[in-house]
Amino acid sequence: MSGIGLPFLASAYPWALASGIGFGAAVSRATRRTARQKDPEKAATRKWVLVCFYLSASVLLALAGVFLPSSPAVMDIRLLWVFLASAVLSAASFRFRKTAGSLILLSLIVIVLSFALFLQSLRAFSGETEIAVVRVLSVDDSRMKLEVSPSDPSVAAPTVLDLEGRYFAPVVKVVIFDDLFVFLGVKTWYRFMGMTSFRVPADSKTTELKQGQGGWWIRRPADLAETMYAWFESNDGRIPGVKTVQIGMDLKKARERGSYSIRVQNDGGVEIVSLSD
């Protein structure tokens, strides 16, 4: 089942927060005096080892924020403010932990979690995932030739389809979660199944559509994902946190030389977006 990811890998902000905490810990350790320790030389060595460790962790976390998020924002000045704020609070909490340190550290944790969850809620409610691109090679009144390229090459290779009718429809199995789980960053589970088509009968006096013959279906072995979907489908309405389990399908009229992006919205809807005029 596709669409499952680690929610906090989506944004660079949590990494900036974590990097600031590491930098603040390094500053706190570097400003501590060792002259009053029982063994000043040993305490000084330990201090600078920890400073190097915290600084290294800060740099690694910052690099992770550049390369791991799906939508990095390394040029966003707000990242610098997030880093500085977390560094100052972290340095104060570690340096003065006997007085206000515990309160500052607790406040920092609450701010980090709240801010990260807020970012995830924005991404979850507005997110979308492209699952395929469709290019119309030719089309007439009764048939169309399409090239379908799944976004995940492991699903299927680009395929040319000859379908009946002028309307194509992707078929996607989806598991949609309740809003609370979406707020926490859980995305809709989906599985791209294939393509079908619809036509207007030549002898029809209305615009009623009928499904065309044939279609294209992705061949997969019976695996764990399919077993999970069948279980969700059989227990639809009885699983806490799951809003609905269904097959999503949307129709689009093929236009000569048109290109379309097939996307799964995080509310479970399947949308076909035109990529060309």
For the largest beta-sheet, the strand count, sense and barrel status come to:
6 strands, antiparallel
Overall mean pLDDT stands at 78
Separation, N- and C-terminal Cα atoms = 33 Å
Shape summary: elongated
Low-confidence stretches: 2-7, 121-125
User: What's the SSE pattern?
Assistant: HHHHEEEEHEEEHEEEE
Tally of discrete structural domains = 2
Textual characterization of the structure:
With 277 residues, the chain is α+β, with helices and mostly antiparallel strands. The chain has 2 domains: 7-125; 128-274, no CATH class. It has 6 helices and 11 strands. The protein has helices at 13-30, 40-67, 77-95, 97-126, 179-183, 224-234; strands at 128-139, 143-150, 159-164, 167-177, 189-199, 210-211, 216-217, 242-249, 252-253, 259-265, 270-274. The strands form 2 sheets. Strands 4, 5, 6, 7, 8 and 9 form a 6-stranded antiparallel β-sheet that branches. α1 (13-30) runs antiparallel to α2, α1 (13-30) packs parallel to α3 (77-95) and α3 packs antiparallel against α4 (97-126). The longest helix is centred in the middle third of the chain and has 30 residues, at 97-126. It is elongated and about 95 Å long. The protein starts with 12 loop residues before the first helix and ends with a strand.
